[in-house]
Amino acid sequence: QVQLVESGGGSVQAGGSLRLSCAASGRSFETTGWIRQVPGKVPEVVAAINWNWSRGNIFYTDSVKGRFTISIDKVKNTTYLQMDSLKPEDTAIYYCAAARVPVYSGDAYRTASYDYWGQGTQVTVSS
User: Fold this and answer.
1) pLDDT (tens digit per residue) in 76-126
2) Rounded distance, CA 37 to CA 92, Å?
3) Among 44, 47, 103, 118, which is disulfide-ready with 4 (CB 3.0 to 4.6 Å)?
4) Cα distance between residue 72 and residue 34, in whole Å
């Protein structure tokens, strides 16, 4: 079992930055990602990263490319999401998620690919 604990959410004005952190217990996963959800809408995978660098891939949904950066610290077992140039449409609950097996290409963007989810952290961007 993997437990994920997010931190770092909050409120910021458009154009600002936030960094989310996700601390994982255990190491029974190959990929971590960030999924966001607006109430009443379908969850969206915004970024994902494979932890085995020999197969390493990083994925971003188009709307965050060039603004968000996902990274990991293997010593701390932590995944980060640096969010810059934030827009009001980035407002959502952000969930950290982990997959037991590596996910690639189109599967990285499917929420069903992820076996474990954190409790979520709110990000609010005001105009």
Assistant:
1) 999 999 999 999 999 999 999 999 998 887 899 999 999 999 999 999 999
2) 5
3) 118
4) 12
